[in-house]
Amino acid sequence: MSAPLKSVIVGTAGHIDHGKSTLIEALTGTHPDRLEEEKRRGITIDLGFAFLEESGVRFGFVDVPGHERFVKNMLAGASGIDLVLLVIAADEAIRPQTREHFEICRLLGVQRGVIALTKSDLVDADTSGLVRLEVEEFVKGSFLAGAPILPVSAKTGTGITELKTALVQAARESGERDTARYFRLPIDRSFSVKGFGTVVTGTAIAGQVAVGEDVELLPAHQVLRIRGLHSGGKATEHVQAGQRSAVNLSGIEHTAIERGMVIASPGRFRATRRVDVRLELLPTAPTLKHRARVHFHAGTAETIAEVYLHQGASVLPGTSALAHFKLQDEIVLGRGDRFIVRQLSPVVTIGGGAILDPLARRPTRKDTGRVAYLATLEKGTREEILAALAERNILGVPLQEIVARTGWLESEVHALAENLARSGQVRIVALEPLLVLPEKIFADILEKSLARVERFHKENPLLPGIAREELRARLGKRVRPESFRTALEVLVQEKKVALQAELVKKPGAEITLTPEEERAKHQIEQAFAEAGLAAPSVKEVFAQMVIEKPRAEKLLQILLREKVLIRISPELIFHAAVLDRLAALLRDYKKAKGERIGVPAFKELTGITRKHAIPLLEYLDRQRLTRRAGDERVII
Ligand SMILES: Nc1nc2c(ncn2[C@@H]2O[C@H](COP(=O)(O)OP(=O)(O)OP(=O)(O)O)[C@@H](O)[C@H]2O)c(=O)[nH]1
Ligand SMILES: [Mg+2]
How far apart are CA 107 and CA 353, in angstroms? Predict the structure, then answer.
């Protein structure tokens, strides 16, 4: 069995008419120009595609237009490539779009490539040698320094074999795409195929996907089923990062999808209108001012961005800056994605860079920590990034948001959070969704909760503890329920507070009464004890007291809690001993007169009014001392 093929995407680059499309045809047998207008005018307008399998490599070619008016189409194609095939006509050498395309590839972070000196049949050996020198000088110090420079002719076939060999070599050296990430494919075309329906194409830039699975169309946030997949011109069950893919989607019209949209693993990505970035300005660009507007290109999408500079009022040519882009349209972006910016007018490429935070907040003067945070996003370890993210989100960071911001897998986020928790930097306050709090914020919640409980005891010596919900409310809205719950658990575990049903209290907290209160408490109890079944109203009892009503009320609560007094209905309170005596009375009645007793007999037995008799009987029913039977009660 042969080794699996390595999939590599090669994009052409170079000035108009330098022979890019012709060269792709010479390499693959497919002429990439597909539009009627392209054939008529003899130029490439939009992206073209071709495939080649060679020496264990499956090449997907993306052919781009050289015309300066179509650089935006070129950008959509260049975003997903592994290798650049820089095409320079030997009879014209380096021209403006040679430079611009080359800069774009550099800014997009393309790592490798091969340079073809096309139309070599049109020049003599001396000229060819000079062009080579010029090209070597041009790429000096760049990612293409040392790349093969091969004279070729599509007309005579010279150098085509050598070019294939060089491409295979570069493909072998090219890094593997990460198929373990969540799937993402920026769409470059959407059309309809008879009998199949909607098909979108693009280069899968991360992850993998299989027929029958769901993908989310963004920014529409629509989940769609994959009916079929094609890659390299053949039907396949599954495609992965680094492959040109045609995806047959069910449940949507092709007209509802356009270039710039993305299909991705459902729920893992979010469309955004604000991003924080590292922006690099080309040496040839004019100075870029704070609040300038630029064309913004990333993936296959393009929009207008307003540039906010996090430091300083302008970016000088040849330098870089931390910036914030406010985008005119929602785009799906991930951390580390490369982008290109072009001037509004005249439209030329002026720079590019990498996304640091795809879900950035609106810049505010108050947010003084942003620059340091972005520096961590740019250079920090994953643990440092997660810690910084937690620090800036004191209400906690939901797992889905961490995933969307970082591009990490859920499992990776869990592992990172556990590392941080072990080293004491964060507290995991909830696992699903993951909510991590910086340890110092959590410590603050512990401290504040404890202080609140203590203060409550001090202010309410007659109450046993503070209601859980009241305690939470007193901590303010900035403490999430999960954080509060975890803090309470910790405090209970450390025996700093105790829980008693819904009450939070200091362990061993006793209600201490002043002698005056002790006397008043006794007075209340006596009032009910002496009244017997002719229970007084609370109002009557309180009227006899010297202490003020709120305190008397609390003393009454204590007596009720201690079950010295029993409330049998909203208005009626009896002393417990009185109710015990009533139970004994009923037992005697049963012995003497049988188990049945009517309301009149009950009134006579107890000497109370009908107004009190009914609630009392209902209480006895609830206590299972009696059971209702028609108009009578059965004594149990
Ligand atoms: N003599 C000669 N002519 C060539 C060669 N390669 C391409 N050409 C011619 O150059 C012209 C432009 O070729 P294309 O392949 O369309 O150029 P391109 O770079 O794709 O142009 P755009 O896509 O519009 O930027 C065509 O007329 C080709 O026939 C070659 O190796 N030798
Ligand atoms: Mg072309």
Answer: 6
Angle value at C-alpha 488, between 483 and 493, nearest 5 degrees: 130
Model confidence band, residue 150 (pLDDT cutoffs 50, 70, 90): very high
The mean pLDDT value for 532-543 works out to 89
Following DSSP, what letter does each residue of 434-485 receive, concatenated?
A: EEEEEHHHHHHHHHHHHHHHHHHHHH-TTSS-EEHHHHHHHH-TTS-HHHHH
Indicate if ligand 1 lies below 6 Å from the C-beta of 521. Answer: no
Q: Give the tens place of pLDDT for each residue, 268-313.
A: 999 999 999 999 999 999 999 999 999 999 999 999 999 999 999 9
Does the CB atom of residue 95 touch ligand 1 within 6 A? no
Report which ligand 1 atom has the smallest distance to the Cα of 22: 15
Residue nearest to atom 6 of ligand 1 (CA): 19
pTM for the model: 0.79
Q: Retrieve residue 200's tokens.
A: 């979108």
Q: Is the CB of 16 under 6 A from ligand 1?
A: yes
- Confidence class for position 1, pLDDT limits 50, 70, 90: very low
Share of residues in the chain with pLDDT > 70 (%) = 100
pLDDT given at position 476: 87
CA distances from residue 289 to 49, 103, 311, 314, 382 in whole angstroms, order as listed: 38, 21, 11, 4, 32
Tokens matching residue 360: 């950035």
Task: Write down how long the chain is.
Answer: 636
Ligand 1 atom at minimum distance from 24 CA: 15
- CA 365 to each of CA 156, 390, 616: distance values in angstroms, whole numbers, following the listed order: 64, 20, 68
List the one residue out of 455, 268, 485 whose CA is nearest residue 359.
268
Q: Tokens 């859920």 identify what position?
A: 410
- Other Cβ atoms closer than 10 A to 448: 16
66 CA to centre of ligand 2 in angstroms: 7
> DSSP readout, 249-260?
EESS-GGG--BT
pLDDT of 438 reads 87
- The pLDDT tens digits for 178-202 are 899 999 999 999 999 998 899 999 9
Q: How far, in Å, CA of 486 to CA of 472, rounded?
A: 12
Write the DSSP symbol of residue 345.
S
